[in-house]
Write a structure and sequence with these properties.
Strands 7-11-6-1-4-5-12 form a seven-stranded parallel β-sheet, sandwiched between helices. Strands 8-9-10 form a three-stranded antiparallel β-sheet. Strands 2-3 form a two-stranded antiparallel sheet. About 35% of the residues are buried. It has about 260 residues and is an alpha/beta fold. The chain is globular. The protein is built from six helices and twelve strands. It has one domain: Rossmann fold, CATH 3.40.50. The termini are far apart. The structure holds flavin-adenine dinucleotide. The site of flavin-adenine dinucleotide has 32 residues, from helix 1, strand 4, helix 3, strand 6 and helix 4.
């Protein structure tokens, strides 16, 4: 079996993240690039299945720019190999274009299961896995909290309003997992050393048979303007002079929190 994990490189959520107000893109140098943590959880689900003795190849697929550090981390966690789609003309690619590129790369790598995150911590579009499944003509198991992979199927639970649903699909299938799915392992020393020798294939748009230039990929959303989030204002201080409870209640009521 071949499991391909879709993993996006994102700015570290624990460091300062900055938006370029001219391009609307994240300032890549402002914070450390890391693999999205939900994508690490998706990889963990694949690795757990392999650790249980299953004959499975785990491949990481990423589309991005200067992604070596993130890919190295995913390989050191245990992925067998990585495929990187890197093409300068994809800068600013939107979700439709990203899905088209990922679907083309998946057709080339082959797969039985595609594992993705239900969203990312920076873009948060939450639609790329659905678009990829549509483009590949495959079923989608969306936003699963935990997954069970077998030789012929994937199943899991998705939380919906008022309850949860158990879903199952035969293979091939596209699956997305949430931040509540398997806790990702830390790479150990052996994994870090092995990662240096694992194969990483870099593909351009030409390799995927896609003519250069994002305009060739069809519909594209355009950033119209970008505004920096205003700096946080210091909140009001409540000093307990015997009226603190009233002041607090007034504050919550005026902010419609009561
Ligand atoms: C040169 C270059 C520059 C880029 N600059 C930016 C940027 O500044 N900001 C930005 O947000 N994006 C950037 N991207 C990546 C791309 O544009 C986004 O990944 C895409 O728009 C997805 O949006 P999302 O995160 O909202 O997707 P979602 O729908 O929220 O993603 C859901 C899941 O889909 C999968 N997925 C999504 N994107 C990728 C990916 N790129 N590779 C592998 N799996 C993926 C992951 O499993 C993810 O958890 C850049 C790409 C390139 C090639």
């Amino acid at each position: 079996m071949k499991i391909v994990v879709l993993a996006k490189q994102v700015p570290d959520t624990n460091s300062d993240r900055k938006l370029n107000l001219t391009t609307g893109l994240a300032e890549r140098d402002a914070s450390d690039p890391i693999p999205d943590e939900i994508n690490e959880r998706a990889l963990e689900s694949a690795l757990k299945y392999r650790d249980a003795g299953s004959d499975v190849e785990v491949v990481v697929l990423t589309m991005g720019y200067d992604v070596t550090k993130s890919v190295r981390k995913l390989l050191s966690m245990g992925a067998d190999s990585a495929v990187v789609v890197e093409d300068g003309s994809l800068a600013g690619a939107d979700m439709v274009q990203t899905a088209k590129v990922l679907a083309a790369a998946l057709r080339r790598t082959g797969f039985d299961v595609v594992l993705a995150g239900n969203e990312t911590t920076d873009g948060r579009g939450g639609v790329v896995p659905a678009m990829v499944s549509e483009l590949l003509g495959l079923p989608l198991l969306p936003s699963l909290d935990e997954i069970q992979i077998t030789a012929g199927s994937v199943s899991g639970e998705v939380q919906v309003d008022g309850g949860s649903l158990s879903l199952r699909s035969s293979l091939p299938v596209v699956v997305s997992v949430t931040e509540r799915s398997a806790e990702a392992r830390f790479p150990n020393f052996k994994g870090i050393m092995q990662a240096k020798k694992k194969p990483v294939t870099t593909l351009s748009l030409a390799d995927l048979g896609i003519e250069a230039g994002p305009e060739r990929l069809g519909a594209r959303s355009v950033m119209v303007s970008a505004v920096e989030r205003p700096a946080k204002q210091a909140g009001p201080k409540i000093i307990d002079d015997g009226t603190a409870a009233d002041q607090l209640a007034d504050f919550l009521a005026s902010n419609r929190l009561l």
